Amino acid sequence: MFKIIDKYQLGPKISYALIEAPLIAAKAKAGQFVILRLSEKGERIPLTIADFDRSKGTITLVFQELGKTTGALAAMKSGDCIMDLLGPQGNPTEIENFGNAVVVGGGIGIAPVYPLARELKEAGNQVTAIIGYRSKEYVFWEEKMRSVSTHLLIATNDGSYGGKGFVTDVLKKLMDKGERIDRVFAIGPAIMMKAVAELTRTKNISTIVSLNSLMVCGMGMCGACRVSVDNKTHFTCMDGPDFDAHKVDFDELMKRLDTYKQEEQV
Amino acid sequence: MEKRAVPMRQQEVEERIKNFDEVPLGYSEEEAIREASRCLQCAKYPCVSGCSVQISIPAFIKVLKEKNFQKAIDIIHEADSLPAVTGRVCPQEEQCQAVCVLKKIGEPICIGRLERFLSDWELKNRKKCLKPAQASGKKVAIIGSGPAGLACSADLAKKGYQVTVFEGFHKFGGVLSYGIPAFRLPKEIVESEIEYLQGLGVKLVPNFLVGRVKTIEDLFKDGYQAVFVGAGAGLPNFMGIPGENLNGIYSANEYLTRVNLMKAYKYPEYDTPVKKGKNAAVIGGGNVAMDSARTAVRLGAEHVYLIYRRSEKEMPAREEEIIRAHEEGVEFNLLTNPVRYIGDKDGFVRHVECIKMELCEPDASGRRRPVEVKGSEFTIDLDQVVVAVGNTPNPIIQRTTPGLKTKKYGEIEADESGKTSMPGVFAGGDIVTGAATVITAMGAGKAAAEAIDNYIRNLKYRK
Which of A215, A217, B144, B253 has most Cβ atoms within 10 angstroms of its Cβ? Predict the structure, then answer.
């Protein structure tokens, strides 16, 4: 059992949970995820690790209420326990001093961008963070993001906070200004990551995305999370979740994400 | 002398295709004694050497006949820690029963059924007070709670070691829990067998994937003196043909995990969904393919096509499972191979294009090699596919343990005793051999337990 130490809402249907998981915290690195299950009849779902504190033995999860399990997790309180928690899973993001790194986060994808930006900055990169929210109401972790980035650029879809538009609009402006970008990292909805990939492909900027495939096992034995990268099948949990954005078949990924849409509506 | 075996009652076909309950119902006391009475107690007892874990078969049959069921199950337990499992899923017809002398005049003794009878009797009559052996205080880590790991852990616990089994999933048993369907191996049986091991003092830890949360090196630092790797052949193979990532196409591992481990057949009472195809195809001819096909039948498919590239004779599945699949209405498309899958605009599989095959000269496996018949392509309409064309070893341990030697498909290199290229690290089961059977994995786990005991005893002499 894994105890929830702190739990609150960050925005509409967006929750924060601080969880006691010393073994996971000891090994976790940016880019990794956990698989959790809440009850005997519950499903296993992957959630990206949004932060970790090795000395306190905690990990942070930020998640959106999308289905039954995330809904149930959102309803839990400090002091409650998560039944099953497996991690840290997946390969950590490869961090080095690339020079000028741009991290792009959309919606709850901003949470895992935080430790990524922190590690990139610690490795000596100039870190430009572009974070996008639906509207002002959804904004979270702005100050945290500012503390780990050299430049922070905010956009909202409706323009109620920061610039109006999508993260790709902001990224495009940077690219059009001719700013040097050595590497881009994008985490967010598949459609956003696809748009970032298409944009950076035009200037051949090396881009890494963290894929959010459906998963069951999270440890390479089921293949639910398979994804085509460079026309070869990979398992997101074992070979990813980070992949070269320019080689990912996003259309297939988005279709696979909708596999159980019909069942979910029942 | 009765030449024919006492038949075992089973669920009728019309009933069983609507449920996930066990198909064979087991012997009654009277039936078990009647079957045991057929044993000749022959001098050479070939059955024992036909058994991967060398159960004293004639000895347990003798006391069973005398109605001393406790003694009989105790004899089995000396060699086999999971008799309720092996009594059900071992291919006895190829092992202990294949060499029974009674075969010369009639049907062999049904050793598996007797083993199952005794283990079921024991589960009902189990006394709480199993005595764990005197603990030596020496720690051994077991990676994976499948048949190899469980067999190894039981033998080490009996020798007095402090044994911890690390499992990645939230439930123990490995393939016994996620893979083999409940209609062949009820999950309560697996749970009670695991309780038996806990009674021996074995500690089991779920949600702990060695390689990620701790490496083998970390385990040694934590004071484990030896490590047994029984991580299984968990990585599902795909054929690499076009369209294989369409929605509705599962690896057998995923399909069976959803249904068995996550209980998707009880969706929405359980949260995990599974596609219930109207027309389902299963690709492959092994036990896993039969399990998948029979699962699809139970989930309500109108047609379940089993597509296999050789003929029925070459199928690696147990004969019993092939017969049951036929009985349950699985439609066999033999000498047929899928070439590509065709989907609809939303990415769901709708057709499979197949090609007819013919058998040529034998290949490396000794089976006749199937080759395509040119121009014989045809299409089957379907909405679900389960790919059951084998598994390769799970690569997590190998990737995170520098210095551990592996073979062509990532199998860990180990000798017959389980010794690997790293001191103190032993391995056995599917991670060494590639996908095989429950009982061979258990045999490997037992052999490794011996080797680990020897290794730890001799540690004090190392410089």
Answer: B144
The amino acid at residue A10 is L
Predicted confidence at residue B263, as pLDDT, reads 96
Closest-CA distance, B449 to chain A, in angstroms, reads 26
Model confidence pLDDT, tens digit, residues B21-62: 999 999 999 999 999 999 999 999 999 999 999 999 999 999
Distance CA A142, CA B139 (A): 48
Q: Within 13 A of B274's CA, how many CA atoms are on the CB side?
A: 35
Instruction: Check CB contact of A8 with chain B, cutoff 8 Å.
Output: no
What pTM value is reported for the model? 0.95
Q: Do B347 and A258 touch (CB under 8 A)?
A: yes
Q: Do A24 and B396 touch (CB under 8 A)?
A: no
CA distance A208 to B278: 39
Q: Give the contacts of B228 (CB within 8 A, at least 6 positions apart).
A: B140, B141, B142, B143, B148, B149, B152, B153, B418, B426, B427, B428, B445, B448, B449, B452
pLDDT digits (tens, 9 = 90+) for B71-111: 999 999 999 999 999 999 999 999 999 999 999 999 999 99
Give the one of A69, A87, A223 whose C-beta lies nearest to B254's C-beta. Answer: A223
* C-beta neighbour count of B324 within 10 angstroms: 22
Classify the complex by whether its ipTM is higher than 0.90, answering yes or no: yes
Which of chain A's residues have a Cβ under 8 Å away from the Cβ of B208? 23, 86
- B361 neighbors B369 (Cβ within 8 angstroms): yes
Q: Could you tell me which residues come within 8 angstroms of residue B386 by beta carbon, excluding any fewer than 6 positions away?
A: B249, B250, B251, B252, B255, B280, B281, B282, B283, B289, B292, B293, B296
Which residue reads 């830890």 in tokens? B205
CA distance A257 to chain B (A): 9
Q: CB A249: neighbour CB atoms within 10 A?
A: 17
Q: Which of A221, A233, A250 to mutate to test the interface with B (most CBs of B within 10 A)?
A: A221
Q: What is the DSSP letter of B419?
A: B
Q: Is the peptide bond before B7 cis (omega within 30 degrees of 0)?
A: no
pLDDT at B394: 85
